[in-house]
Design a protein that fits this description.
It contains three helices and no strands. The protein is mostly helical and about 80 residues long. The protein has two domains: about 45 residues, no CATH class; about 30 residues. The chain is elongated and about 80 Å long.
């Protein structure tokens, strides 16, 4: 998932103050949706392979059986 590069330029117009320039820049960035896309893809995780899913399932199954065994013995882990 590649992020498309977008350049936003804002040039000072006449006697415009620095604050007004920053405000205009901020509005352009918000309208372009760059930040929304960046935040959305920030925590993107790759899908797990079949092998990794299988290993995780086997591990869960093993832990469940071990826990059930402890319950039968009256020694549940805390």
């Amino acid at each position: 998932m590649a992020i498309k590069k977008t350049t936003i330029e804002v040039k000072k117009e006449g006697r415009e103050s620095a604050q007004a320039l920053i405000r205009r820049f901020t509005k352009k960035v918000q309208k372009s949706g760059i930040l929304r896309k960046a935040r959305k893809s920030r925590f993107h995780l790759r899908p797990k392979s079949k092998q990794m899913k299988k290993r995780a399932a086997l591990r869960r199954e093993k832990l469940r059986k071990e826990y059930e065994k402890l319950i039968k013995l009256g020694l549940p882990k805390k």
